[in-house]
Design a protein that fits this description.
The chain has 423 residues and is of the alpha+beta class. It has a single domain, classed as Deoxyribonuclease I, Chain A (4-Layer Sandwich). Helices cover 15% and strands 15% of the residues. The strands form two sheets. The protein has a seven-stranded mixed beta sheet, with no helix packed on it. Helix 1 (62-69) runs parallel beside helix 3. The termini are close together. The relative contact order is 0.17. Residues 50-406 form the Endonuclease/exonuclease/phosphatase domain. Residues 1-31 form the signal peptide. This is Endonuclease/exonuclease/phosphatase family protein. Keywords: Endonuclease, Exonuclease, Hydrolase, Nuclease, Signal.
Length: 423
Amino acid sequence: MHRRSRSSLLLSALAVGTAAALSVGALPAAAAPAQGGISKPRSTELRVATYNLSLNRATEGQLVADLTSGTNAQAKAVAEVIQRADADVILLNEFDYVEGGVAADLFRDNYLEVSQNGAAPVEYPYAFTAPSNTGIQSGFDLDNDGVTAGDPDDAFGFGLFPGQYGMAVLSKFPIDTDDVRTFQNFLWKDMPGALLPDDPATAAPNDWFTPEELAVVRLSSKSHWDVPIQVGRSSVHVLASHPTPPTFDGAEDRNGTRNHDEIRFWADYISPFKSRYIVDDAGKRGGIGLTEPFVILGDQNADPVDGDSTADAIDQLLGHPRLIDPKPTSAGAPEAAVLQGGANLTHLGDPKYDTADFTDNAPGNLRADYVLPSKVLLKVQGAGVFWVTQSDPLARLMPYNVTSDHRLVWVDLTVPGWTGWIS
């Protein structure tokens, strides 16, 4: 396998968020996971992954300091997870945005390209980072608590400073810089039939926000990105986002309704007859074409059965006629559900699909992270969740205080026009 030489390419939106331990039933026998990791079939053309690696920090500049050292324990642990998965394209959620892509460069140089606990280093010559709505103050009292000065709940997206909980896309394949689209500034009110929150203390509907607030409130709590990746002769669009958790609010359910509509954005974007209202940050209107291959990925903060999201939030994608749900599973998640108990024992969903190890009493473990390819021009070879059982040597990477409360999710795809790595 030929690895491309390191490129300085880094985009900014300003210029244009045990062997049985990984159960992957859809994989052919030759692709069964190796002990302590994920075996990548030689026939794999494109492995796409999403990972909420919880590498956000509480203070601005701290992530750069941690990544500069090369010795931060959490960064080393999440880097090892990424190395063992060896995805060709990966979305990182909860990775603080730093202008100029400084954090992404440091993470690649000091952690991903350095072996962690014997795992093979992985190189991503291409990266995309862009500003996030998190921590950008709106100037309004969006949570109606009477406080606006520095309140993270009054930012366009919850955050203590601009860029906290941001995103990054890393790729082994070139990014089509001319066609990247971002939707950071799209207003929530401009979505037809938006599920705007309602003030339960008044008779008027959908009136939690004042008209003045609606004139500035953005839909995306971080951002929505369309990042085309050039894979051979094909351009595969990575549709990346991280909707707000549907909790931490009141009876108005402003976070639950926003989560629903952040997910709906992609459902409309891939539906030509519904996408005309969408306008990107450069002023271009509309969504993605019917013949363009794409993958929707990210921490969607919505489980199809359990949890606090609105009843149909993630079903907008899982039931979409243009999408495939590979239903990645693991053996570690069902084991954890039994051992941890609590809310997990009352869940209606099958725990083998869980991707997030949340608080046991509420909401319990959930399926929150998704890699959903288009049916057009893409074929699923296999899928899995990196959640190992306690008997696996890599169980040391599972605790939330070691890596993250989320697990890496990956899908292997066949891509038209791909002729293989140059040897």
